[in-house]
Amino acid sequence: MEKTLSIIKPDGVGRGLIGEVIKRFEENNITIAAMKMIHMTRAQARGFYAVHKERPFFDSLTDFMISGPIVVMMLTGEDVIVRYRKLMGATNFEEAEEGTIRRDFATDIEKNIVHGSDAPETAEFEINYFFNSFEIVR
Ligand code: ATP
Ligand code: MG
Q: Which residues does 19 contact at the CB level (< 8 Å), separation at least 6?
């Protein structure tokens, strides 16, 4: 059983897409093992995206990520990292496959509705960044 971190970004929450995203998890045999809504501080957002700190879009991305509340979830399932990234679609919604979350709802390469971990190591870091062991259901 693999685990990953999902975030419904401020655009997804603001546009009323929490239910839509969760419905896709439930329809695709992906289990929600932890979930909460938070509004990140700037420091929290910059720490989360530290891997991107040299990128030209870092300030804009972290400003966007603190522009409103987000929903963070730990997801579990077989091959859930890759399966969830398939459900999300490519970073750039214009390149995302039909029927993916980003193709269906994203409006911008930055405002792309959802985040998903890209490997087991990043998933571990990202889950621990938001959840302690008492917040994860067994
Ligand atoms: P995420 O990490 O959010 O799941 P991703 O792995 O598909 O997305 P990354 O390359 O990790 O993409 O980029 C992280 C986020 O930074 C993207 O989801 C997007 O919001 C933003 N981003 C990426 N590339 C650009 C860009 N060229 N211009 C503006 N924002 C970008
Ligand atoms: Mg990424």
A: none
